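Appendix B: a complete holo record

For completeness, this appendix reproduces one full record from the ligand-bound portion of the collection. The bound molecule is zinc ion. The inputs are the chain sequence and the ligand SMILES; the output is the full three-dimensional arrangement of the complex, encoded as structure tokens. No fields have been trimmed.
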Amino acid sequence: MLAFTYQGAGQSAKLIDLERPDPGPGEVLLRIGANTVCGTDLRILRGEKTNLDMGVVLGHEVAGWIDTLGEGVSGYRVGDLATVVPSLSCGTCQLCVRGYEHLCDDAPLVGYQVNGGLAEFMLVPECAVSARRLISASNSELRPEQVALTEPISCCLGGQRNYQVHVSDTVVILGAGPIGLIHLQLALLAGARHVVVSDPSGPRRAAAEHFGATHTVDPATGNLEETVLGLTDGHGADVAVLCIGIPALLNQALRLVRKRGRVSVFAGFAKEGWSEIAANLIHYREITVTGASNSGREQFAEALQLIVDGRINTTDMVTHRFPLSQATEAIDFVATGEGIKVAVIPDWNYNHHQKEQNNA
Ligand SMILES: [Zn+2]
Ligand SMILES: [Zn+2]
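The structure of the chain with zinc ion bound, as generated:
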């Protein structure tokens, strides 16, 4: 089978021919339907992340059909569309026990140490199957690329759980990439009154409006602070969510929120992530700063339910598709920042999808 594999920090990944895995006892073989590309994949290939195993199959936003059940596997049905929680948390460490399995210190990650979704098939390890980190979608009408978005949506839900959106809040989203657009939709679902999205790109602001932003601002020409103060009687936003890893934006986010407001450092920053901030903003204004990293089964179940119920728009999120044989081109395209989400689809399914589009 074709697989897109990691070749070391800063090296370009390589498409190679791997033997199709055979599920052993407790394992499940997925026939990949789609794997969406994440900003993290770019950071991996730029060499910003180094905790990957040499030769591992990349991709952690995966969806596929259950193809073969290993001996002893129950509770799954061949042919069902499913996705995998990428953190294969240990279940026994202090963090897992306290309910923070996404922060587990001993969790191999799909697409880092465990072969991921940029391939034709993926072997779901026994520990993932037995812990129900393989999750089937109950709606068979969904496309795999929609189900693959469970992962980024679940991460945003985890972030939102930390920063909290209350009914009638004013939320500012900095950056209208795929992650910003998901936070935007989740803020609206949580009952936000205003969701202000700031992004220098015109097409991205248009996308934000399409997904329901009540206001968009071009930070190059518009005054974000003025807009936010104008909407909030001069108090500031309840929440600001940093969806792009630009260090200077953190201080801006601190200035945008009201006293007792919340700032989420959702985006990862390059290297150690240094950023100069006016700490007194946090001190005097009693601002809460929250983080976010990965997600667990609970957020996965919630995210998939939103997708299944159509309460979050996933169909318009995937704007570009590439066959697996052009995975390198797909990554290069993501790096241009054009489009929203890019799906990499095994060639047989890609060709099938193209035919369907042509017939439609
Ligand atoms: Zn991701
Ligand atoms: Zn653990």
